[in-house]
Write a structure and sequence with these properties.
Blueprint (H helix, E strand, L loop, with lengths): L2 H25 L5 H30 L3 H26 L4 H4 L2 H24 L2 H25 L7 H29 L5 H26 L20
Helix pairs in contact: 1-2, 1-7, 2-3, 3-5, 3-7, 5-6, 7-8
Amino acid sequence: MSLYQTSLFLHVVAGSLALATFWFAAALRKGSPLHRRSGQLHLLAMLAVIVSGVPLTAVLFARGQAVFGLFLGFLLVLVATSCWNAWRAIRDRHAPARYAGTVFRLLAVLLFTGGLLLGALALRWQQPLLGVFAAIGVLAGLDARRFLRRLAQGALPANWWLREHYGAMIGNGIAVHISFFGVGLRTLLPQLDPGLQLYLMWLLPVAGGLAAGWWLDRRYGRTMGGKAGVATRQPGLGT
């Protein structure tokens, strides 16, 4: 097989594993050993998705599909950010300054810059879908800036790491479900207009992610008393 074919095969296999482990981890008691192991396997699968996506992005540029190539490259940065933040929020829950280190800041800048670029392309080509993800990139960059400001002010809540962790995992969930819907909608609902299929493929996971974030904020995201850097135990979560 060619490099492109090999990368595509690995991308599909890793994405399928990431989808399965995402739901397996979501169904388990938060903080349990099985939850942690399945979460680690999920992040490894997502790493394979990112690595295999790089050659696919390069092929798009080589074929002259620069806009699509930029979009896919932005998505890879978005997924990489979610994976990094999900992992480091747990590892650095006692050290928020270490969490907000060089990689955190670099990824935030890339997302913000990529969002602005996608926004310009959305206006140029009249593509609302690009505009949606442009807004996601810009908002992610601004949210990272807000986190850094609160860190400098000593205003982070004790459960900051939990919010960062589940927020990043929701981002991963959105990514794997976009891939799933990309295949599933065409198979299950072939009679739908292709344009409508495209928008449903991208926007349904985003809407689901927003709903999941709202629910998790209500369940786990309330501000806990205490000082940032002290990992406070949450109901139903082991630390």
